[in-house]
């Protein structure tokens, strides 16, 4: 007996960001449809002839009475339900005209980004929540030996470059020195409204109240389940499809994917290039940061091929 062929549904959705950059608009699904009563990001099914952005413009006008002025890709999500395959084509809307309201009688609400986790969403929407709450730039700290110089460079990146997501990487330090640096880095990051992830074993969070853990690819592949609570961020280094699948399996919130270009630190590793990078990102189950020879001038290109943004050491650690 042949297996049932699932319906394929292409849906465009919008993360509409408020003028202050801190709130996002969500809508409640009608009670008489699938996942009725849950909240979602506004949008709807595309007609066969429509592109993602074109269909989204029509949907937002019909549902909310707004016109998109400026938008860019945020994330594409493939999600399997028992009876259908959903492709969510999600755009981040920065500028729009009109005052959004529920033209079809649906409830709409502006919600602070950090409070999105308090609202029930369909399972397919969960990666969108992560993408909305993450910035487009991810700083990986350099290997500084001098603590005062480390603190100055971190502060400069936060203040002058506006970095809001940091990974503390210091492989040359022993555990005691790393924990001491981490305590200071947490204080600096939190003072400027940034999040800090520790590059190391999950048990580090028992000693330092950082915002999460970044796993090496080796550590990632050794896991059977998520090693930290949902209240902390979990990221990982990935380099191929197998590692991306494992990151989804253990519940990573986001990952880096590298190397996109040849780098001085790993000149022997062949780069994947934009084409292969895009193919891997398309099926990733979470936001992906491009890593390997990236600068902030690559951020828009990275977003255009489906990435969350770029991760870098050299471009931010000056």
Structure description:
- There is one protein chain.
- By secondary structure, the chain is of the alpha/beta class.
- The protein folds into two domains: 7-125, Nucleoside Triphosphate Pyrophosphohydrolase (Alpha-Beta Complex); 137-312, TIM Barrel (Alpha-Beta Barrel).
- Helix content is 26%, strand content 28%.
- The protein is built from eight helices and 15 strands.
- It has an eight-stranded parallel beta barrel with strand order 8-9-10-11-12-13-14-15. Strands 1, 2, 3, 4, 5, 6 and 7 form a seven-stranded mixed β-sheet that branches.
- α5 (217-221) links the parallel β11 (212-215) and β12.
- The radius of gyration is 20 Å and the shape is globular.
- The N and C termini lie far apart (62 Å).
Give descriptors for this structure.
single chain; 318 residues; alpha/beta; Nucleoside Triphosphate Pyrophosphohydrolase; TIM Barrel; 2 domains; eight-stranded parallel barrel; seven-stranded mixed β-sheet; 8 helices; 15 strands; 26% helix; 28% strand; globular
């Amino acid at each position: 007996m042949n297996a049932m062929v699932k319906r394929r549904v292409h849906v465009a959705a919008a993360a509409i960001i408020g003028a202050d950059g801190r709130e996002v608009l969500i809508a409640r699904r009608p009670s008489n449809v699938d996942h009725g009563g849950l909240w979602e990001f506004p949008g709807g099914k595309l007609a066969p002839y429509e592109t993602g952005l074109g269909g989204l413009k029509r949907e937002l006008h019909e549902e909310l009475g707004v016109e998109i002025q400026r938008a860019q890709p945020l994330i594409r999500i493939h999600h399997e339900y028992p009876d259908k395959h959903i492709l969510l084509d999600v755009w981040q809307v920065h500028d729009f005209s009109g005052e959004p309201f529920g033209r079809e009688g649906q409830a709409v609400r502006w919600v602070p980004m950090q409070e999105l986790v308090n609202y029930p969403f369909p399972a397919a929407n969960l990666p969108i929540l992560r993408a909305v709450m993450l910035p487009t730039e991810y700083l990986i700290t350099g290997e500084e030996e001098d603590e005062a110089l480390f603190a100055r460079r971190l502060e400069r990146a936060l203040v002058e470059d506006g970095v809001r997501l940091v990974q503390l990487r210091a492989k040359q330090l022993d555990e005691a020195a790393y924990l001491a640096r981490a305590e200071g880095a947490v204080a600096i990051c939190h003072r400027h409204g940034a999040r800090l992830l520790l590059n190391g074993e999950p048990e580090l969070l028992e000693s330092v109240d950082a915002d999460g853990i970044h796993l090496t690819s080796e550590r990632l592949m050794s896991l059977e389940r998520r090693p930290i609570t949902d209240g902390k961020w979990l990221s990982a280094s990935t380099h191929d499809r197998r590692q991306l699948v494992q990151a989804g399996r253990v519940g990573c919130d986001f990952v880096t994917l590298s190397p996109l270009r040849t780098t001085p630190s790993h000149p022997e590793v062949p780069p994947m290039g934009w084409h292969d990078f895009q193919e891997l990102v398309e099926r990733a189950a979470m936001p992906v940061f491009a890593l390997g020879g990236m600068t902030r001038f690559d951020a828009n290109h990275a977003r255009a091929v489906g990435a969350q943004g770029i991760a870098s050491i050299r471009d931010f650690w000056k």
